[in-house]
Amino acid sequence: MKRAMMQVSLFVLASALLVGCEIMGKKGVAATMNMQEAAEHSDAMLDATIGAIRPKIEWAHEDTTAGSCDVTRRRVVMTVISEQRRGNFLGVVERFWKKSGYEITSVKQGKTHPGIFATSPDGFGIVLVIRGEGQAYFEVNTPCVKNSEVAAPTVKPNGPAYEGVEIPRPNVRSAFWSADTPVPSSAPSAG
User: How far, in Å, CA of 61 to CA of 74, rounded?
Assistant: First the structure.
């Protein structure tokens, strides 16, 4: 009887570990990471996404939050994304994410506050939403990983850092993204 109980206990433990690895990342990548490494991976996802946007946009870091086993990294776009360009902006990002193997999990329609939600192949959630006055926000949410301290991002924003002050509404005008004219057929695309 003891042996049978021990075998059942081992089976339950092994099953829980396998399920935990699946939750932590589809390929188990996150299972080997701590919170700092997951934050750095999130930064790399944000760097790649923002780097795929043409014409370039100006961005700044927003708050990082850390839970008991997860981290959220955020960036705010300081380039005004006009109402006429929001669909194009989201399309550029969506195409890049799909090309990168991300699964689009949801798309929020709307002229003023659209958004895209996706999951990377290794289980990280990534979001782009447009909020007031055409300000875009990116966010990456890590899966549950090993607990550790989390340092601030090391990548410098490509504009003002806004450290210690409230981030203003978008204040950078772009000849393309801020334009209030229809999107030309030769609009930029990721790739």
Answer: 6
Say what percent of the chain tops pLDDT 70: 79
Identify whether the C-beta of residue 75 lies closer than 8 Å to the C-beta of residue 158.
Answer: no
Helices 86-99 and 35-51: crossing angle in degrees, nearest 10, is 120
The helix/strand/coil state of 77 is: strand
**Measured between alpha carbons, how far is 44 from 39 in angstroms, rounded to an integer?**
9
Whether the per-residue pLDDT at 10 is higher than 90: the answer is no
Distance between CA atoms of residues 44 and 155, nearest Å: 9
Kindly report the average pLDDT of the chain as a whole number.
83
Question: Residue 183 phi/psi, 5° resolution?
Answer: -70, 125
Residue type, 2: K
pLDDT tens digits, one per residue of 130-170: 998 889 999 999 999 999 999 999 999 998 888 888 888 88
Contact at 8 Å (CB) between 129 and 109? Answer: no
Output the CA torsion sign for 129, 105, 68, 70.
negative
Q: Nearest 5 degrees, angle CA 133-CA 76-CA 188?
A: 80
